[in-house]
């Protein structure tokens, strides 16, 4: 045999196979790395569960088409702790799904988008009778679940929110139907037979859950909110600071102090005369926000910064709306909307 023939017969295929296997195992490794980095903190090592529901259960993997996982990872659960991963590439997401699938050998259901048409009103009655105790009023999710890192310890598996737009945009009617009929083994989620539900009952329940769906706001749109509020001031640096203090008090806030940016780092006489922060607070709002999510503490007390640069004075603050989007918690949204209105009205008042 010539050397060339040997190359084509043995060596080239061998190299090809080695490359093929190493790229496949690379993909699996990549999924593992991404999962460990981005998901394990909530869903546990190999999907054992935690703040997020266990993804490694056979019953879960048998009921969820890849398309459901793909959509869920992409859009998350807006307003709940499950974040949207819209910056991951399709390739990354497939790698994560490949890794999740590697935990258990199960059949993977086909994606079937056939809609279920039934009576949502009857569905509501059934839901209120059988499901509300766990999934909450209108499918909002069990109280205190899926919202922050702290959750009731006596709930090993939290009943997820069924009226969440991320969920509704990810799940097909056929998938909902299967889950309700089968329940989910090894979790508190019971099968329909335990409630003596007929096929029609199940269809009505699916229609009721589907009735919560609205047009969804995507992660990209969410982050379009600017992260700071900036107002140009027609007054001098010192006048602007005094205006802000007055506006803070007029809004029933407690003025804590104002200090130069470098206060404490340099002797008082050398402190910045062009960069000052005004601190203030309102105990009501602070207690409320902290009760919803303790991480808000990083951004308290409230502060507004006044800066003079090239003869121009600006007053600015963080944008609380952007803050609540970072925390992805719709209960916090209400508090943050209030803070946003306060900040902008103080800034407006002080610079008009
Ligand atoms: C005893 C509490 C309990 C009851 C009652 C209950 N569920 Fe569940 N349900 C759960 C839990 C817990 C899960 C999450 C299971 C898991 O971790 O995979 C779940 C999951 C689900 C899911 C899948 C959600 C998702 O994010 O994957 C659907 C759909 C669902 N339930 C519908 C219903 C309906 C409809 C009823 C009433 C007929 C009902 N459930 C009754 C506890 C319950
Ligand atoms: C900060 C915590 C957190 C992180 C990080 C997180 N999740 Fe979740 N995830 C949750 C919670 C909580 C739920 C349940 C949804 C609810 O509460 O309504 C969930 C739900 C899900 C579901 C739907 C489960 C079901 O019952 O149908 C999937 C799939 C999922 N997550 C996958 C992932 C993947 C993959 C990653 C990483 C790329 C990830 N999650 C990262 C908290 C998290």
Give an account of the 3D structure.
With 352 residues, this protein is α+β, with helices and mostly antiparallel strands. It folds into 2 domains: 15-210, Orthogonal Bundle (Cytochrome Bc1 Complex, Chain D, domain 2); 225-351, TT1751-like domain (TATA-Binding Protein, 2-Layer Sandwich), CATH 3.30.310. It is built from 15 helices and 5 strands. The chain has a 5-stranded antiparallel β-sheet. Strand 4 and strand 5 form a beta hairpin. Helix 6 crosses helix 10 (199-210). The radius of gyration is 27 Å and the shape is extended. The model is unreliable at 219-223 (pLDDT under 50). One heme C (HEC) binds at residues 38-39, 41-43, 51-53, 55, 69, 72-73, 77, 80-83, 85, 96, 141, 145-146, 160-161, 164.
**Average pLDDT score:** 83
The coarse overall form would be: extended
Q: Structural class of the helix and strand makeup?
A: alpha+beta
Class of the largest domain, according to the CATH hierarchy? Mainly Alpha
**Cα Rg:** 27 Å
CATH topology of the largest domain: Cytochrome Bc1 Complex, Chain D, domain 2
Q: How many structural domains can be distinguished in the coordinates?
A: 2
Beta strands, count: 5
The main pleated sheet reads as: 5 strands, antiparallel
Summary, kept brief:
The chain has 352 residues and is α+β, with helices and mostly antiparallel strands.
